[in-house]
Structures are given as C-alpha cells and as structure tokens.
Amino acid sequence: MAALDDFNDEPAEQAVRALRACNAATRFAAEVVAGRPYRDAETLVARAEEVARGLPWSEVAIALAAHPRIGDRVAGSTAAAAASRREQRSMSEADDAARAALAEGNREYEERFDHVFLIRASGRSAEEMLAELRRRLTNDEQAERSEVTEQLAQITGLRVRALVS
Q1: For the segment 45-97, what is each residue's pLDDT rounded down to a tens digit?
Q2: Are residues 140 and 151 in contact, defined by beta-carbon separation less than 8 angstroms?
Q3: What is the distance between the alpha carbons of residues 33 and 136, in angstroms, rounded to a whole number?
Q4: 53: alpha, beta or left? (left if phi > 0; alpha if psi -120 to 50)
C-alpha cells in the first residue's frame, strides 16, 4: 500500500508527471490527480480508466502520438518506454513472418486511419494482435475511434496499476 500512499501524498506536479507515463493526454493526469486521495489501487485504476474512456478524440490523439507501433522495439529509459517494452513482451517471441505481417498491417492501418494502431498488447500473442489489426481495418472511422479509446483505457489501467503496485 506504500506506493498508493506515496501517490496520494506526493505533490500534485509529481503525481501528474508519473501519470503522464500512463496516458499522455493533456487532461488525463490532472483529472486523476484531482480525485486524490484514493482509498485503494482498484479505485484509482477504475478512475483512470473512466477518465481515459471519457477523453474527447483530440485528447486521445495526443495519447496515441506517445505510443509506438506494435512490433517496434522501443528504446529509452522513460517509464513509458519501459511500460511499452513490458506490454509488448510477446513480440520478442514472434517469428519473422508475424513481424513482417504486423509491419505491413501497421502501414495499412496508418494510411486508413491516420494514427498508430493501438491495442492492449499485454497478455496477447503477436498472432492475436495481428488478427485484431486485420479485423479492425474493416471498421469505419467512428467504430475504430471507439475501439481505440477502449484500448487506451485498458492500457492506462494496466500502467496505473503498475505505478502503485
């Protein structure tokens, strides 16, 4: 519980900085920090996911810009880079064919929707992510925005949980 206590008690600007690694949308961190103190990690995670699901598309787009492509090897020592590597761990086991198919799918997706393909990679194999990418390429713009927002909320929840665990 010490990590949650630390999060609840630290200066707001420090809490905001920590949360930006979980979701880069401008208003996300401020809205979550405004709800402190949280009684437990589950309440904090639920609030973070709720805020993420309620973001307007312009804010979701800011968060998307901070996410690497599925299959990219993320370098750097930032909390966001470390989280991305952890979440995409299954890609280290992907064969060359799956990597190539994901790279091609990412290109096609970005041409169609003009942003990175976002999916909660944690707990999914490369093949599962590729199947989801192909399925989502058939979405219209509005359906895809809904799916992206939901995936962002799930990723945010995982990262916030890791922050206070």
Answers
A1: 999 999 999 999 999 999 999 888 877 665 666 666 566 556 655 566 778 89
A2: no
A3: 33
A4: alpha
pLDDT band at 13 (very low <50, low <70, confident <90, very high): very high
The residue segments making up the domain with residue 65 are: 2-164
Task: Provide the mean pLDDT of the chain.
Answer: 90
Residue 107: give its domain's CATH number: 1.10.3330.10
Cα 36 to Cα 44: distance, rounded to the nearest angstrom: 8
- Please tell me the predicted confidence (pLDDT) of residue 99: 86
Q: Tally the C-alpha atoms within 13 A of residue 19's C-alpha that lie toward its C-beta.
A: 30
Using the Cα atoms of residue 9, residue 12, residue 17 and residue 20 in order, give the sign of their dihedral. positive
Number of domains within the chain: 1
Identify the residue whose tokens are 């707990």: 123
Whole-structure pTM over 0.85, yes or no? Answer: yes
Give the tokens for residue 2: 């010490």
Q: How far is CA 141 from CA 87, 112, 117, in A?
A: 26, 9, 13
Place of tokens 């709800």: 35
Backbone φ and ψ of 94, nearest 5°: -70, 140
